[in-house]
Amino acid sequence: MKTKRITKIALLASGLFCTPLMAETDQAEKHFARCVACHLAEGQGIPGAFPPLKNRLAKMSNSELGRQYVVQVLYGGLMGMITVEGQNYSGVMPAQTGDLSAKEVSELLNYAVNKVDKNGKPENWKPFSEKEVERLSKTKGNPVSNGNLRKQLLENQRDLK
Ligand code: HEC
């Protein structure tokens, strides 16, 4: 009897602790679906149409400039010729954040990085926080200026080619 009750309490307690976390992941997964529409489920992209995020997003968001770039692309969009792993793209990515809060964007980004870079993130990679997204998204840029920011990022980070 006693064990049963303890199990019940334990289950209840784990339920209480788990729910907010799981709800957060579910939400992030739902929001990430908008990226999947173009960049595909594993972020592998479509050569010539949608660039891959796989094995890149974590690396790209591992410096102050890179984090600024990624947040700006989400808030302000990206347009213009870019080369990713030797393949050219000259597409348009519309801003994606629409009705999302900074907290939701930070969760979406953390989810995205863990999803597309599950084979490994740089050791010192830090998750995005709501505060950071709030701060970085004060500058949204526009699709063209974000393309220029990308050039600057690639000059600083040669391993992003
Ligand atoms: C409508 C299609 C579309 C959707 C939806 C979309 N993207 Fe993109 N994304 C693109 C295209 C196209 C480019 C390249 C733009 C260019 O050619 O200049 C791009 C570029 C990027 C880049 C820059 C890559 C680089 O190498 O510089 C990042 C980062 C990115 N997307 C992340 C995301 C994330 C995260 C989401 C979801 C929140 C998302 N995208 C949703 C089409 C899309």
TrEMBL record:
Protein known as: Cytochrome c553
Keywords: Heme, Iron, Metal-binding, Signal
Signal peptide (residue range): 1-23
Pfam families the record matches: Cytochrom_C
Region annotation (Disordered) ranges: 120-161
InterPro entries registered for this protein in UniProt: Cyt_c-like_dom, Cyt_c-like_dom_sf
Regions of compositional bias (Basic and acidic residues) in chain numbering: 120-137, 152-161
Source organism of the structure: Pseudoteredinibacter isoporae
Polar residues composition-biased segments: 139-149
Domain Cytochrome c: 23-116
GO molecular function, one term: electron transfer activity
